Amino acid sequence: MEKGINGYILEKSGMAPIDARSYSSLALAYIGDGIYDLVIRSMIMGKGNAHVNDLHRRVSRLVKAHAQSEMIGILQPELTQEELAVYKRGRNAKSYTMAKNATVGDYRRATGFEALMGYLYLKNETDRMMELILKGLDGMKAWRDENEIPRIHH
Asked: What is the pTM of this model?
């Protein structure tokens, strides 16, 4: 098994490995939201320097519930049975919060997507997580539009 970011962090901090299956869907979504946001921020930063407001706008388009819902729609045929089960558990979890400017359906699908990202992250399956994110982004209009945004070159 590869040692992903989570494995590295836990090892360096002297903590034991985590069994991703022991966490609730909403806990998986919680960490999945953070790691997906970090991946997208890193990818946007990798496209070149820009004003912080532009960076925020570009990242926001890709991490909002509607975009995550679109992404999981693209990815569902690519998921293993285990990944699909994690996604569905997250999608069906009873959350007491709601994203602003999102439909209930988009919010639930996004929660399932985040749960899947959290699950892969906690299992140290960084390669698989990135494979899915890149496949999903390839199919998203918001990502394709990224190339039309001006950048600052220093």
From this structure: 0.88
